[in-house]
TrEMBL record, chain A:
TM helices/strands, residue ranges: 12-32, 52-85, 115-134, 139-162, 174-192, 204-229, 235-253, 283-302, 339-359
InterPro entries: ABC_transp_permease (IPR001851)
Gene that this sequence comes from: gguB
Cellular location(s): Cell membrane
Protein name, UniProt field: Xylose transport system permease protein XylH
From TrEMBL, chain B:
Ranges for domain ABC transporter: 21-258, 277-523
Domain of life: Bacteria
Entries under SMART domains matching the protein: AAA
Protein's recorded name: Sugar ABC transporter ATP-binding protein
GO function terms (MF aspect): ATP binding
CDD domains, per the entry: ABC_Carb_Monos_I, ABC_Carb_Monos_II
Cross-referenced NCBIfam families: GguA (NF040905)
Keywords: ATP-binding, Cell membrane, Membrane, Nucleotide-binding, Repeat, Sugar transport, Translocase, Transport
PANTHER family: CARBOHYDRATE TRANSPORT ATP-BINDING PROTEIN MG119-RELATED, XYLOSE IMPORT ATP-BINDING PROTEIN XYLG
Amino acid sequence: MSAVKQMLGGNIRQYGIVGALFAIVLIFQFLTDGKLLLPNNVASLIQQNAYVMILAAGMVIVIIAGHIDLSVGSIVGFIGGVVAIMMQHWGWPWWLAILAGLALGAVVGTWQGFWVAYVGVPAFIVTLAGWLAFRGLAILLVGVTVSIGTQPQFVAISNGSIANFLGYIDNRDVVTLVIGALVIALMVFSQLRSRRIMQSHGLAVEPAVAVWARLAVLTVLVAFFAWTLAGSRGGTPIVLIIVGIVIVTYSFVTRRTVFGRNVYAMGGNLQGAMLSGVDTKKMNFFIFVNIGFLASIAAVVTTSKAGAAVGSAGNLYELDAIAACFIGGTSVSGGIGRISGVMVGALIMGVLNIGLSILQVDPAWQQVLKGLVLLLAVAFDLNAKRRAGTR
Amino acid sequence: MSYTTTPYSAQPSAPHAETILEMRSITKTFPGVIALQDVNLAVRKGEIHAICGENGAGKSTLMKVLSGVYPHGTYDGSIVFEGSPVQFRNIRDSEHHGIVIIHQELALSPYLSIAENLFLGNERSSRGVIDWNKTNAEATKLLAQVGLKDSPETRIYDIGVGKQQLVEIAKALSKDVKLLILDEPTAALNDEDSAHLLGLIETLRQRGITSIIISHKLAEIIRIADRTTVIRDGRTIKTLDMKADAVTEEVLIRSMVGREMGSRFPTRTPNIGSEVLRVEDWTVHHPIQQDRKVVDNASITVRRGEVVGLAGLMGAGRTEFAMSVFGRAYGTRITGRVIKDGKDVTPHSVGAAIDVGIAYATEDRKRYGLNLLTDIKRNIASASLKKVSKYGVVDGGAEAKVAERYRTEMNIKAPNVDVVTGNLSGGNQQKVVLSKWIYTDADVLILDEPTRGIDVGAKYEIYTIINDLASAGKAIIMISSELPELLGMCDRIYAISEGRVTGEVLREDANEETLMRYMTMENDTDQEVAR
Ligand SMILES: Nc1ncnc2c1ncn2[C@@H]1O[C@H](COP(=O)(O)OP(=O)(O)OP(=O)(O)O)[C@@H](O)[C@H]1O
Ligand SMILES: [Mg+2]
């Protein structure tokens, strides 16, 4: 018991949100008569919410550093439009259009980063301007729609799955099962490795029971997830791989890099960070270049999903990303937040989306419910912090 | 006043005055820490009761329990106030009973006026509309009671810490305070402001207001306290009657640290080498009022193995000088040169200053020194990430190991280096700040008030650390408002007044009088030729 307590210890909040995710999944599983966790629904949960996770990975960094970005939805629309035009009107191959789109994302980020970092205009204002301007540009460029039906490879990114080249076992896609097994192996390896490193430095580590207990739970979860997906129409959605790469990369960036450290330092105490030698202007600049880049990935995913560029594509995406961050325990005033928490936050939003659509709830009511969940999550967060007595 | 000479006559505060407050066997734990264990405290009506103890002993926690910051139910034990048991759910509850706490960190709203702050949460208004005449009139009266002559419409931002402290007390008076709690009120004050504040507390005693004061300045306690309770490691050690027991600083120190302490300053045989740093003709202007010179043509030098002091009154420009040298972290229109090891290195950013081997440990640890949201290890590594990373990737193990080393060496009171610095006691936070800068391995360390808010035992430790750094060939520049500290530690002291270096004194020639004379030298009087 005490080992469990110790394991939970500093992470009550983190586990609280995972508990909330479980509760919501169970509730919808029940309400939908078990339809929520049908393989095809799990696959579309991912395909429909990939953009939130991708955007939230950038947004959480922005928020930890003490800023906000309101423009990402408009950037998604704008870059989606440009990419579609490149392919459709200019006849560029799909891969070249994607590369150009990603580069354009970085350029857009550079533009906004410049104003925030080197002119000192608050990010709220800069990105509010971006929200207006890029939406306008998107509509100017695209008009109503630019179809990309002639580009099957591009459309496959968000709608297709990884080719099944290993056959089936018991009607389950073996590629997906192998990927699941690899993920589990990597998880076990990395957790044990970091524990061993700490030990070799003679530092206190959590008890072995706690580590193994956590690994066991995670293994069951991943195995269940992989098994379910393997039974879906196509197996592993391509976009899951993209999301996976984004999650792993940004967990690493926030937790292990000097860049990540400096972001937390700035959010926790900006003047303190400056006096520790952090080049805060440069950091701010790259934080916005980064989210511009991630917005362009989301643009590709979104355009691919819709099979066309639309002037209004990406509308309100910024709010989905921001909500995922706050549900996932990111501090409104900066300095605190984790990729893992934010991804759970995004999943909660996703499960709500798909669960409510299966139940054919009126979209207006869907919004009401999502609003309430956001409010409750943050209230719960504050309460947990207060009880931990850190105030 | 003849009764003071006759031992049997009545004392102004009668020995068996009634007890106003009793805290009985208070126990308070935080995850992994027992902050208070079975602590008892009895305070008599109308007395000044001091609480002293080492950093992390639990003083601030005890007062937070008393004032309802930690509500009833989050601790064990009972509180009896004015004869009846009380259970406070929050600060408002305790204020309702006339208990007002002034925290270690002041809690005024910087952009509001003095008057607005005084009545914050308790506005003088009719039907929700603020009555400014009444507000300002009452504020003026309250300010007069604490001896503050500023207009009630002055913004808090524009007055110094000393005056802010007085505003806090005036605010307490506006709430009909019976028991006033002051947590290290003089830590950030110079001698003059401290004396004024202590005088004020004595005046309040005459009006029947009971005070509890926490302080690491023992001379202060001896001067004003009637009784003192000593806390060590979360337990009450004893309560001393200051007059009856004829308590001296030595007695206090012995009960605080539990052992005898020799001299206040460790000895060091100076081994001074060649010049490391020379600042020439340094002039800095105020960042907002750009015509105002904050530092005026100042020049100083430091040599290897030397501890150099900067003495000056509050507002003399010592911190501004140090911060501007440290990569222009303060001020505008900065001119002058910084020469290190014979080369002009004048750093234009903090990063550059760190790279050339200059470190600056701030006097204001909460505002500038720490990220209170994160743990000890990340704070210690935060100015030296280059040393614990490769290709931009931080080596978490190496970082934790370094932090662990400093936790042991600096005797930081925390179970491990994963503790969030916001949860450390004030003195232990200071040790984290020092560790952070020592770890940068700079050749020149500028230490701004390095022992502020630190207990006597830990002060000695920090002095020892400074001496060790000097012996290892580092050059130390030490800024301090406590003259005895500068006199006890420094090989050479510069006096600064109104942004100018007004004197330079060697250790053997230095005494408080000489320094004070230089420190108070007006700008227009003829400057004495320094040494
Ligand atoms: N919110 C908290 N969470 C965890 N531990 C805490 C918290 N607040 C205080 N502590 C711990 O309780 C102990 C007592 O702290 P406290 O602040 O009362 O010390 P103090 O006597 O006021 O010291 P100082 O003279 O340095 O201000 C310390 O070990 C501190 O780390
Ligand atoms: Mg304290």
